[in-house]
Amino acid sequence: MVNRGVIITGGQGAIGMAIAQGFAREGAHILLLDSRPDEDGAHGRSLTEQGAASVVCVAADVADDTAVAAAVDLAVTRFGRLDVVVNVAGMMIYREIAALTGADWRRLLDVNLVGAALLTGMSLARMQPGGCVINVASVHARRTTALVAPYAAAKAALVSLTRSAAIEGKPLGVRVNAILPGAIDTPMLRHSPAIKSGAEVLDESDVGQPEDIANLALFLASDAARFITGEDIVADNGRMGRL
User: Fold this and answer.
1) Would the pTM count as exceeding 0.85?
2) Fewer CB atoms inside 10 A, N or C side of the chain?
3) What is the DSSP string of 153-187?
4) pLDDT of amino acid 39
5) 3-state DSSP assignment of residue 93
6) Residues labelled as active-site residues
7) Are the CB atoms for 88 and 16 separated by under 8 Å?
């Protein structure tokens, strides 16, 4: 990954930052795209200290066409190339379907699906052959629970987008895959009403760390995964496969 250009959305979140740290240790150039600014430059300094060739932090809405296009242009201009895009940005609200408004649906779809679709589309033609897009979806794309319908629907659509983009990316030499994390130790998991109330009890052996997802992303971005595209890979310690 030395000197490869990488864009990561949701870069200040737990999973996004773990992925960024992994690429930093490999010597990549990294553009972190997040809705929050890197106020004091701490994220940029941390990634540089871990070995990143260079770091750029951009505060923008991933569903804003103009902002996403500007981020892609900046990465290509600053790094001289774009090799990897990792779409991590996501959000969840807990509400019954009957109580959801159109604004709720649009915002959840914008962050969890439209942002990834825009960045994927704008990146395909700018990527180096051998590049890749990695979409961080969720096991909710396959099996879900109550109160998270927009999130689950968006993640299922993100998996479908992955397949479509893989087909269109193949003649360009660009691979596209999705990761479906299960329970990962992040604020999103710990703030779940079901978890907080005790309605859902997790075996802590089934709770992964952000680094577990980062390691899979690094593999999918590597030459070792050159024959893998259009796939959605579950990372949940086998939880979804058990009765």
Assistant:
1) yes
2) C
3) HHHHHHHHHHHHHHHHHGGGT-EEEEEEE-SBSSH
4) 81
5) coil
6) 151
7) yes
